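To: structure desk
From: M.T.
Subject: fold request, one chain
Message: Could you run this one when you get a chance? Sequence is below, nothing fancy, just the single chain.
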Amino acid sequence: MLFRIANLLRRKSFNIESIAVGPTETPGLSRMTFTMLSEYERFNQVLKNIDGLIDVRKVEPLEKRDAAVRELALVKLSPGEPATRPEIMHYIETFRGNIVDVSPSTLTVELSGDPEKIDAFVKLARSFGLSEVARTGAVALSREMSSGESSSQTLTR
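Reply: Done. Structure tokens follow.
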């Protein structure tokens, strides 16, 4: 299914910024979250094309303001001077990150949050010997309206 949807987006010349896929609360179903930018008319047309694919249960766009959006990142740092480690630790705490691996020459930090937060940490980490970055891509769920109704959902298969 992922291949079919990604291929459809490629054929329509959409640039996918991120894709995240995982199981849902319903056994046998997966949720796919695609992050991309587009003009509304083109985007609306491709949503209809995806919705028409066999095995797609529901397709709905999410605007950032209507969703809880999070991303996970692992960031490996290779700080040259041991004296910089306390400063790095301060930034890790500020960004609410966790150190998940330590070696004599590297620190691996786990971060989660909105994509802008991850971007900000990666930018800061460049000054401390950024070595590697692995990011999951954004996942999202709609925020509930005050009346109890959902605003919209992510792509679900």
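Reply (cont.): The domain at 69-138 is CATH 3.30.70.1150 (Alpha-Beta Plaits). Let me know if you need anything else for the meeting.
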